[in-house]
Amino acid sequence: ERPGAGGSGFPAALVTPRLDAGDALIAGLHAQALERARDLYRALPDAVIAEGVLQLEQAPRDTARFDKIAAQDLWPYDAMTRLDAAACAEHLGQAVQSGGLMMRGALALRPSAVLEAWLAGAERLSAAVETLQPEGEGWALLDADGALLIEADAVVLAAGWGTAALAPDLPLAPVAGQADWVEDPTTPPVAWGGYAVPTGEGLLFGATHDRGQVDTLPTEEASARNLVTLSAALPALAAQVETAGPVRTRKAVRATTPDRLPVVGALGRLNLYALTGLGSRGFCVAPLLGEHLAACILNQPSPLQNTAADRLAPGRFPPGSGNPHAASRA
Ligand SMILES: Cc1cc2nc3c(=O)[nH]c(=O)nc-3n(C[C@H](O)[C@H](O)[C@H](O)COP(=O)(O)OP(=O)(O)OC[C@H]3O[C@@H](n4cnc5c(N)ncnc54)[C@H](O)[C@@H]3O)c2cc1C
User: Fold this and answer.
1) In this structure, are 134 and 78 located in the same domain?
2) Ligand 1 pocket, 174 CB below 6 A?
3) Rounded to whole angstroms, how far apart are CA atoms 147 and 130?
4) Residue 177: strand pairing partners
5) What domain range includes position 262?
6) How many helices (H) and strands (E) does the chain have?
7) Looking at residue 268, what is its pLDDT?
8) In this predicted model, what pLDDT tens digit does every residue of 143-177 receive, in sequence order?
């Protein structure tokens, strides 16, 4: 289709790290990725909509968990601050039931501005790749009619859920999601199980998580679920949204993995690589992982520790763990 045709194509996205109180390597990786993503996005015109994302406590255990995360020796000083319910309410300008974690380094982002800036100057060919055929030390990319699209020295499969059909050995699973947006009101960026993000011209909220589904036709039922999610955490905002103008909506498919970690690295065949399985955090992790992958391909030093790179490598999955969903490409 086109850049932004999949999960990266919503009017606003959160750039937030996976919060992990137990796994130091994964927590560190996300802290590093957030810092890199933030530096790169801030250098682009119009990409950053807002800085600082408030993560609200959802369950009683989040109180101790967020305390532990805020105290982790991973974040820039003052980047993670605990707020009580009154401070959260003051920040959001409306009543909330729980305290939270203020992530000052996290962002609300305008994906279209990033795609536009980063694709400027790239040679582009928009076509659906059906088959990859080894060709000398490189690859031939063919369409559904078997016609040659392009020959390449090296191929990186970075096609979101579409990667599943091209690399059926990866245990990717689809999680369809719908988000909705309105032109008025707006809010500072906030997440709980759902999220509400300023778009610059209003507010985007959501999102649904429909495991195993690949259908991208938005439904009123999913919009209703998104409103229930919003109302559960921010009832005053939900009431404003209900009386606001028309709700716009979009659905796409996330590519997820069994361990909820991305897939980045060589696929075990000469000059074939993948960067996928980004789940719900691609805008945080993909810039750092893209640099890691470029370093691997060019045989240059990577910004990732070897142990982190190994945790994300395609080869971490046991042989035969392939993809039962691969036939149902989005
Ligand atoms: C409702 C919803 C909200 C989300 N919100 C956020 C958020 O706030 N923050 C966040 O970080 N992430 C969010 N995500 C997750 C987002 O999908 C990922 O983080 C990330 O953006 C995925 O990027 P990607 O490039 O891997 O895949 P995609 O953005 O899905 O892009 C895949 C591209 O590959 C193309 N393609 C597929 N198959 C082929 C093929 N065979 N040949 C050629 N091209 C092909 C597609 O046309 C598309 O352009 C959200 C997802 C959903 C569904």
Assistant:
1) no
2) no
3) 10
4) 252
5) 129-172+258-316
6) 9, 16
7) 86
8) 999 999 999 999 999 999 999 999 999 999 999 99
